[in-house]
Design goal:
By secondary structure, the chain is of the alpha+beta class. The chain has 4 domains: 2-104 and 274-332, D-Maltodextrin-Binding Protein, domain 2, CATH 3.40.190.10; 109-272, Periplasmic binding protein-like II (D-Maltodextrin-Binding Protein, domain 2); 362-455 and 631-721, D-Maltodextrin-Binding Protein, domain 2 (3-Layer(aba) Sandwich), CATH 3.40.190.10; 457-629, 3-Layer(aba) Sandwich (D-Maltodextrin-Binding Protein, domain 2). The chain is elongated. Bound molecules: 2-acetamido-2-deoxy-beta-D-glucopyranose (5 copies).
Length: 728
């Protein structure tokens, strides 16, 4: 009985599978021919039973990739390969699933490049030119270049209308296949046959019947002289003949040109490559199909002499069914959501470009706050500004702010130099940098200070004057106070010194290990073990566990490290040495008593430890410090730079127009803390979105940070490195 059941079940299953036939959606005659050849090759290469079971292929001709998506939804076709931008829409808007993606010789990501022939053009002078794009909302032809142009403010987006409207007036004429419904000028350069009969219209369609379709077509558009610039993926450059290469130039982000071979360091960003989509209930069969065809006809396929999956040359077109440069297909497991498949940076970019339509969110700026005190200050800030809505979003540490920005849960935050380094590695970009100079007067005729000279602060080691036998070099076995995890003054700088006999230049290079080896215990908020033992935690509204990586921990930051040095009322939790920033140390000492921490301390009760083993009074910090610290920088996702910049400049204008306003952006003492949201030493914010993080931080600091992070584990960098293709 049981056996009979099993046999019946098997027969039913077999019948179901038999009934399934893989219907591949094609968008042109050449693609239809390649698909038909594949179907024949499958029949020839597999035994009839196997073909019948899972390898019967038929080819469904559609007019465009969008038509394919509708056909798949309507169960009139099953699978199609799409650009990642279309994969995103197919999944988010139309409920399809991604089942595989193309992998190329250098991985699954593509670079967007701007190609020109006229050497007088540069990336800043594209306004009014004629442009060729691989496809509308495509990664390399649309999203990455527009994201870049917006981030530099070369292109402005009047948020009342879709971005495509501003693009259509930015370029004088374009060919953007797929954009017919958006604006006529976006299709003006296209050359496909025009017809009012849907089936016969190829003009501006995402189909090979439109000569300027996809990256190859966009290059054709450039070659033919129809366009001045083509936005394509780097893979398409391979098809340009050696003899022709000298005619073309890439436009780099810094306004220079480069030969085609330099696409790695002359691109407008990185994003995911193509992928295949199907209906949810069809995914298992479709995956099995892809595994089979790849095994037979892929780069190392068993039956390559019969058919080559990634070669379109005998059909008179490029990139049919798949990109010709595909090395293999990576089959995706079920449990991956679209941001894991396409990458967080990319998904955030698409949202930023209004891929899912605009929303109320588009007009607010979400600022990251890491503690109750910061939240209070941020809320005051939100109340003090008139026009632009500001929303304060809470995270538990600066590192989490970086993560939340990447996840599109918050938009911007001002980061210390080490966290700026991390954020840069995570694909975030600078907007403005805190300026610690004396004056912020803008030059004649400008509204804001513009300068490339960014004053730094310095890190110092502070001790109580009364602890007379403490020096750099004999700190072994003592108690230490460090601003916070990764803080430049508390974590990055001190470990370089010979802190003790135990720690000299031949010692390990991981700061966490050094501090654990050298000090008996201490407070380094955000760490673990002995270096949390001296921390206090927080009470009341700001209650938190000991060692939290934010101001709720009483010993967090510059103010916290000083509190740690003088100790709490119980006299138990104190340090022998504090590593902090010099800029507000005297003010912080004087505010110890008003904030109810400890009475009677004056600056003369403290001394600095110099690198050479001397001690010096606080005012001698210029000759007795642990090194320079580059300024804090406000960082965001690339597509938001212009918006965050406008927001901050308006805030700055509002506040300077109302000098009597109670709210001060660069003061924190009202909240009983220091350096909330911005360093208190800030005089104004200086535009730096045209610079990269490395330039802002300076070569020396940047290399030092690189060395250190090469030998310490960091969860946040690990998180960022997992992203499929980080934009930079
Ligand atoms: C290149 O562009 C410049 C304008 O920037 C134009 O004057 C010139 O004629 C163009 N050259 C060619 C060969 O099209
Ligand atoms: C860009 O890369 C090429 C090699 O791919 C190299 O020769 C060139 O110096 C690089 N340019 C810059 C500015 O890094
Ligand atoms: C593609 O196929 C053509 C002919 O079918 C062949 O000459 C060519 O070498 C193939 N290309 C690659 C990269 O295998
Ligand atoms: C450096 O530290 C190691 C132990 O970490 C020690 O063996 C060595 O003697 C020290 N060197 C100097 C010059 O102090
Ligand atoms: C850090 O490691 C990366 C990758 O392993 C390497 O390219 C880089 O040169 C290293 N940097 C330093 C400063 O050691």
């Amino acid at each position: 009985m049981r056996a009979l059941h099993a046999v019946l079940l098997f027969l039913i299953l077999l019948f179901c599978i038999r009934a399934k036939k893989m219907r591949w959606c094609t968008v042109s005659d050449p693609e239809q021919r390649k698909c038909a050849e594949l179907a024949k090759a499958l029949v020839a290469a597999l035994p009839p039973a196997a073909v019948a079971a899972f390898a019967r292929l038929s080819c469904v001709r559609a007019y465009s990739t969008a038509d394919c998506v509708s056909k798949i939804r309507a169960n009139r076709a099953d699978v199609v390969t799409l650009d990642a931008g279309e994969v995103y829409s197919a999944v988010k808007q139309f409920g399809l699933v991604a089942i595989a993606k193309e992998i190329y010789s250098d991985g699954g990501c593509i670079l967007s490049v701007a190609v020109v022939r006229n050497r007088t053009l540069d990336i800043r002078s594209l306004q009014g030119r004629r442009s060729c794009h691989s496809g509308v909302r495509w990664t390399a032809g649309w999203s990455l270049p527009l994201g870049f142009l917006l981030s530099r403010n070369y292109l402005t987006w009047t948020k009342e209308q879709p971005l495509s409207q501003d693009v259509s007036t930015y370029f004088s004429a374009s060919c953007v296949p797929g954009a017919a419904a958006m604006a006529p000028s976006l299709c003006a350069l296209c050359q496909g046959h025009k017809s009012y009969i849907r089936q016969r219209n190829f003009h501006c369609e995402t189909s090979h019947s439109e000569p300027f379709y996809n990256s190859q077509g966009a290059l054709r558009c450039l070659r033919s002289g129809a366009g001045d610039v083509a936005f394509v993926d780097h893979l398409a450059l391979e098809s340009i003949e050696e003899s022709e290469r000298e005619e073309f130039r890439l436009l780099c982000t810094d306004g220079t040109h480069a030969p085609l071979s330099h696409y790695r360091n002359c691109s407008l960003g990185r994003g995911p490559g193509g992928g295949m989509v199907t209906r949810l209930n069809y995914r298992k069969i479709a995956r099995k199909f892809l595994v089979t065809v790849q095994m037979l006809f892929g780069q190392r396929g068993r039956d390559r002499q019969r058919f080559q999956l990634f070669n379109s040359s005998s059909f008179g077109e490029n990139d049919l069914l798949f990109k010709d440069v595909t090395e293999k297909l990576a089959i995706l497991p079920d449990d991956k959501d679209v941001s894991q498949v396409l990458g967080l940076d990319y998904v955030a970019l698409l949202k930023g470009l209004g891929h899912e339509g605009s929303s109320l969110e588009d007009s607010v700026v979400r600022w990251c706050c890491i503690s109750l005190a910061e939240q209070k200050k941020c809320e005051q800030w939100a109340l003090s500004i008139k026009s632009d809505p500001l929303v304060c979003v809470r995270a538990v540490s600066m590192s989490e702010c970086v993560e939340k920005i990447k996840r599109d849960e918050v938009d911007a935050v001002s980061l210390d130099a080490t966290h700026s380094f991390i954020a840069g590695k995570c694909g975030l970009v600078p907007v403005v940098t805190e300026y610690y100079g004396t004056k912020c007067e803008p030059a004649e005729g400008t509204t804001h200070l513009e300068t490339d000279v960014l004053p730094s602060v310095v890190g110092v080691a502070v001790v109580k004057r009364s602890s007379r036998n403490i020096f750099i070099g004999n700190l072994g076995g003592r108690r230490s106070c460090h601003g916070h995890m990764y803080s430049p003054a508390g974590w990055l700088l001190p470990y370089r010194l010979s802190l003790s006999l135990l720690h000299n230049s031949s010692s390990p290079c991981d700061p966490n290990q050094v501090y654990n080896d050298v000090f008996w215990k201490g407070c380094l908020p955000g760490s673990q073990g002995n270096l949390c033992k001296v921390c206090m935690g927080g009470t009341g509204e700001a209650a938190t566990k000991r060692c939290a990586d934010n101001h709720n921990e009483r010993y967090y930051g510059n103010m916290g490290a000083l509190r740690c040095l003088v100790g709490d009322a119980s006299g138990k939790s104190y340090g022998d040495v504090a590593f902090l920033e010099q800029h507000n140390v005297e003010a912080n000492i004087l505010s110890l008593s008003p904030t109810g921490w400890a009475d009677g301390w004056t600056p003369s009760d403290f001394e600095l430890l110099c690198e050479d083993g001397r001690r010096a009074p606080l005012p001698e910090w210029e000759s007795c410090n642990l090194g320079a610290i580059p300024p804090n920088t406000v960082m965001t996702r690339p597509v938001l730079t212009a918006r965050v910049y406008d927001f901050l400049m308006k805030t700055q204008e509002t506040l300077s127009a109302n000098p009597d306003s109670e709210f001060k952006l660069f003061q924190s003492k009202q909240y009983g803390e220091s350096d909330l949201l911005f360093k208190d030493a800030t005089r104004c914010l200086v535009h730096t979105s045209h610079m990269d993080t490395r330039t802002i931080l300076g070569e020396e600091f940047y290399r030092h940070a690189e060395t250190v992070f090469n030998c310490t584990h960091s969860d946040i960098l690990e998180f960022c490195n997992q992203d499929v293709c980080s934009i930079f």
